[in-house]
Amino acid sequence: MAAGNAVENLQEETTCAICLDFFHDPVMLLGCGHNFCRGCLDRCSGDAAGAGSCPQCRLPFPRGGFRPNRQLANVVVAVRELAMPVAEELCRRHRRPLTLFCHRDGILLCTACAEHHAHPAAPLEEVAREYRTRVDAEKQKLLAVLEGLRRVLGEQESRFLTRLGRLRRRLEEQRRGEASELARLRQRRSELQAKCRQPDATVTLDPATAHPQILVSADGRTAGRRESPPAPLPSGTERFESLRCVLGRQGFAGGRHRWAVEVRPGPDWALGVAREFVSRKGCFGLSPERGVWAVGQWLGKLRALTWPSPTSLPHSRVPRRIEVALDYAGGRVAFRDADSETEIFTFPPAVFAGERLRPLLWLGEGPALLTLCP
């Protein structure tokens, strides 16, 4: 019975925990040292890449985290041969217990068989201890290799984490430096914008220059169309006779100035600046050649009143408020959307030659209404 227990113990050591049969093509998991059939482990991994967790202890293993266990495979072959006659327990010829194992022939023997046939036999318990010792030794070798791998991987991980920490610190320092430089540039831009920005000019309209069909509000800020005045207006050299224009009271002969005009819906209008002594008689086109720098809506499109013909501007809609910016020394007149601050048009530099420039509004045929913003 002792021999039978030894064989049973060997059978347990050589049985797969998944299929509960002798190992077939056994492999050992490097992480935990447990053994399984190669096919059983593939079916249980649940990952097409070959990774998974140990079915026995649930320790995860990576792809290729196991190796063939050839020593265990050899032991399985021997134990299979040992286990086959165990069920009988007695020698068929001598009816004696099978207590010996022949290494040469790989069979179980009783004492009579060993004596009569001169088999090099050894007790089953001794054979079991021998195989256990060999299995344990191989297991220790594998564990030692695994421990070495773990130590090497630990050292590599430590070096990698150190390098990663240094890289993160450098990136953080670079990010802080870039943020600081960006803040400095933004501050510098704000300073330059504040330095270059023209002061707002207080502008009102001069009724004495208004065409008879232009009505100027009492505060001098709004110009609208009317068919004819209730009474004849006094004539003079200041008043426009043919062009429906009106000039601002203020004149500028130097510096930088800006003001905005609110544009209400209407078919044709224009706004900008004109020379002090622009002609008030006759009908002529508004352009720098005539002493006028203006933009406006004409024939349904936003245009710059350039010479020799107006320039269509690529704006999908007419701004609600248009800002006029005058740089007298630089000879520039520019226009932009006062709400979005996007550029509309800038005239080429001109020579004003010391002559004062005055704000100008022009109203076309429709019921346009232009208002100077405070």
TrEMBL record:
CDD domains to which the protein is assigned, alphabetical: SPRY_PRY_TRIM7_like
Residue ranges of every copy of the RING-type domain listed in the record: 16-58
Descriptive protein name: Tripartite motif-containing protein 15-like
SUPFAM superfamilies the record matches: B-box zinc-binding domain, Concanavalin A-like lectins/glucanases, RING/U-box
Keywords linked to the UniProt accession: Coiled coil, Metal-binding, Zinc, Zinc-finger
B30.2/SPRY domain segment(s): 183-374
Stretches assigned to coiled coil: 168-195
Provenance organism: Grus japonensis (Japanese crane)
Domain B box-type: 86-130
Gene3D superfamilies: 2.60.120.920, Classic Zinc Finger, Zinc/RING finger domain, C3HC4 (zinc finger)
GO MF: zinc ion binding
Pfam families: PRY, SPRY, zf-B_box, zf-C3HC4_4
